[in-house]
Design goal:
Blueprint: H1 7-10, H2 23-42, H3 44-69, H4 74-95, H5 97-124, H6 128-146, H7 170-201, H8 204-212, H9 217-259, H10 264-274, H11 280-297, H12 300-329, H13 334-348, H14 350-367, H15 374-380
Length: about 375
């Protein structure tokens, strides 16, 4: 059949979309981003203490600024403040060290008791998993009988290779643990001195960034606005996290004391500290508290009650109060923040989970004021 020459007149006009994206520029951006991620992962031992020092300086700078307005030198006020924080943390850890040691020593016994309970429950009553495994064994046996009654004999003149697991070397374990402890102490000292020097410097780096931002007044103005927004959002976020951690620690400690759980003060301090680690911290507190409660009370219901109370507190604080307060203080998209925190956690581990949100805040403040990066700021915002 021939085509109708008038059919083309009834077709709607075609619309061609011209994408305003250059393939070369997009590939260059992707390669640059991958290179930055590789450098951040490779040099994590440098960047993690640097970011921790910056975050701590943002958290403590309002106190040092206030003391400076009272004519206290910045060097003296920063030194006294850092020494007071270290002394308070050390005193708290020393006062709770005995309870913490007893709690840690009871964890293997609790795990052993839980394993025995699960094993005895399986022997008393077959679980669906045991039934499925038994059915699979029967099917395998039937298949072997259908194929000839027995499995094929192993070939002759074939050397058997037995892979032995390396034996536990206590000296190597102690050596690696000592190296890890020394590395952690060295990084803590580095973060302490970096925080001190940044507090003493005040707004020196701020003025230098404004100076090198560009010769025009517009560039300097955008730099000042970005730095002001980063400063304000960071301090508000850290204030929210501090109040949430202190409140959660008090509530968890009081709740566990009312439930009769031993070492309730240690659990309160641990809940407050681990509250700073998104997603992983609350899970660790709930699971550990339930395990220790099972050892102490010897009852699964009591363990579930303790773990359930910890989970309810974590949900109220972490998914209701903190997001509400954070949204009031900082306009950030919850989905983008969740994905970003997961990405930083993959990049730097637990430290990435801790530093992910402050880094995303700084990135958003910069992207909102750069024309080519405004789509990134729009994705991170509400």
């Amino acid at each position: 059949m021939g085509s109708d020459p008038d059919s083309t007149e009834d077709e709607p006009p075609r619309v061609l979309l011209h994408m305003p994206v250059d393939v070369r520029n997009a590939a260059l951006v992707v390669l640059t981003a991958l290179a930055i991620l590789a450098v951040l992962r490779w040099a994590s031992a440098f960047f993690i203490p640097l970011m921790l020092g910056i975050v701590f300086s943002y958290a403590l700078s309002p106190i040092v600024d206030g003391l400076q307005r009272w004519r206290v030198p910045r060097a003296l006020s920063a030194a006294v403040l850092i020494l007071a924080i270290l002394g308070g943390a050390g005193g708290t850890a020393y006062s709770l060290s005995d309870d913490a040691s007893d709690l840690i020593a009871s964890l293997p016994q609790a795990a052993r008791k839980l394993r025995d309970s699960v094993t005895s429950g399986r022997t008393a009553k077959a679980t669906p998993l045991d039934t499925v495994q038994q059915a699979a064994a029967e099917l395998q046996k039937a298949a072997e009988e259908a194929g000839g009654g027995s499995a094929a004999p192993p070939p002759r003149n074939v050397a058997r290779v037995i892979v032995e697991k390396p034996r536990f070397d206590l000296r190597e374990y102690l050596w690696s643990g000592t190296l890890g402890l020394v590395t952690g102490l060295a990084q803590a000292v580095l973060v302490t001195f970096l925080t001190y020097f940044m507090l003493v410097s005040g707004d020196t780096f701020r003025r230098k960034l404004v100076k090198i931002a560009g010769p025009g007044l517009a560039e300097k103005k955008l730099t000042v606005q970005a730095l002001d927004e980063i400063n304000g959002q960071m301090q508000r976020y850290l204030l929210v996290q501090l109040l949430a951690s202190v409140g959660k620690g008090l509530v968890v400690g009081i709740a566990f004391a009312l439930l009769g759980l031993n070492h309730a003060a240690v659990w309160g301090v641990a809940a407050g500290v681990l509250n700073l680690v998104p997603y992983i911290g609350p899970v660790a507190i709930s699971g550990g508290a339930a395990l220790v409660a099972f050892l102490q009370f010897g009852d699964v219901r009591s363990a579930l009650l303790v773990g359930g109370v910890a989970t309810v507190i974590a949900v109220i604080v972490g998914y209701l109060l903190v997001p509400w307060a954070t949204s009031k203080a900082n306009s950030m998209n919850a989905v983008a923040v969740f994905i970003g925190v997961l990405a930083w956690g993959w990049l730097w581990g637990v430290w990435g989970l801790l530093l992910g949100i402050p880094i995303l805040m700084a990135i958003k403040a910069v992207c909102d004021r750069v024309d080519h990066l405004k789509p990134v700021g729009e994705l991170l915002g509400d």
